[in-house]
Amino acid sequence: MISNNHEKAEKYIRGISINVLLMGFVSFFTDISSEMITAILPFFILSIAGGNILALGYISGISNAIANMVKGLSGFLSDKFKKRKPFIILGYSISNIAKPFIGLQRFWYGVLGLKITDRIGKGVRVAPRDALISYYSEKSVRDHKFNNSSRSGINFGIHRTMDTLGAVTGASLAALLIFIGLSYENTILLSIIPGVFAIVIIFFVKDVHLEEFTETDKKERIQKSEDITHPMIKLIIILSIMEFASVDIAFIMVRAGELIGTGGSLSIEWVILLYAITNIIYALMATPAGKLSDRFGKQRVISVGLSILFIISLLLIFPHTNSSFIIFIIFPLFGIYLAIVDTCSKAFISDLSGKNKKGKVYGLYYFLVGMLSIIESILFAFLYQKFSYQIAFGFSTALLLVCIIIFATADFQIKK
């Protein structure tokens, strides 16, 4: 179906903008590249000079913190300059060119430097990209005259599904390459190939025209405030704190590796495949989770996802000697949690924000997440290495319970 609202009519496939689908394919190839690295990165770090769990915490915490703080800046700048696409191109290019060189590093701080560069690229692209997806989801409602007032859940869900299918492919490919005898180093270097495909595709995405930023009719002004409202600030703060309470999948992979080393029958290649299973579940669940959140409400569905993470954290406190426990319980549950919370959180922010401020709002969200993530990763790694995995997971479990109660009972309605 084609819209007639503009000089160049928007193209849709089953009600989804072709631009959202193109961004999905960009994320698909980028995540093949990224997950070829991420799936083996904890083991690669532990194999090089100075690599330990605390080093892993530093790399995860610092790189993700910088990424999220850059997201805050890029979201603000994309609103200011009324452009999304240049930031998206720059961000994907930085990441896909820098990260394969991780495979050449022999010290953990070299990995840190390149991981920071990669995460800067992610920071540059994500807030403008999310704002662009949010714009096209709103545009689909106007062009197709859908009965429901929100299409953000399904649009973000489809994007997350394509993104995560790339993660599944990348992790599975990494496991295959390691299985046939390639080293960690060569597997990481080969990740540059899908990264190049991603850079090429992004040039075909259509940016938002200047008039689309400034076009806001009276009805929209009544329905959505163009200011950053109190409920919006409350949502962003609570979601940021929930990120602080979350568990990084890298530490779950390390714990699985420890189980292998204490009597388990699996190899590292199988742990990498378990990581792929997480992403398979994520890919299968992201779009249905988005649809459910459109129907039953983002707050209710996100609360379910957080409860699943609470169960995961609680289970990881207890000692287990059978690695099948990790296979059949923890990894699939983590995939369900990611599909629900990652998809629906972004959609929830979209629903509460006016369209002219989306870049700024997403930027604020990611900035706060970045400020807390560096503390969270380093503190978790410190507790894990200096005390025990039980203390580390116990800390996250207790904090998460408080976050769930606060989020589930909060009022995010915009007072008119």
From the spread of the alpha carbons, the general shape counts as: globular
- Largest beta-sheet characterization: 2 strands, antiparallel
Q: Report the end-to-end length measured between terminal Cα atoms.
A: 35 Å
What name does the CATH topology carry?
Answer: Growth Hormone, Chain: A
Instruction: Classify the helix fraction into a percent range.
Output: over 70%
Please report the first level of CATH classification, the CATH class.
Mainly Alpha
Structural class per helix/strand content? mainly alpha
The sequence of SSEs as H and E is EEHHHHHHHHHHHHHHHHH
Structure explained in plain terms:
By secondary structure, the chain is an all-alpha fold. The chain has a single domain (12-208, 226-409), classed as Growth Hormone, Chain: A (Up-down Bundle). The protein is built from 17 helices and 2 strands. It has helices at 18-38, 41-47, 53-80, 85-98, 108-144, 152-179, 184-189, 192-202, 210-214, 218-223, 230-245, 249-260, 268-296, 298-317, 324-352, 358-386, 389-409; strands at residues 12-13, 16-17. Strands 1-2 form a two-stranded antiparallel sheet. A hairpin with a 2-residue loop joins strand 1 (12-13) and strand 2 (16-17). The radius of gyration is 21 Å and the shape is globular.
Tell me briefly what this model is.
The chain is mainly α and 416 residues long.
Indicate the topology.
Layout: E1 12-13, E2 16-17, H1 18-38, H2 41-47, H3 53-80, H4 85-98, H5 108-144, H6 152-179, H7 184-189, H8 192-202, H9 210-214, H10 218-223, H11 230-245, H12 249-260, H13 268-296, H14 298-317, H15 324-352, H16 358-386, H17 389-409
Antiparallel strand pairs: 1-2
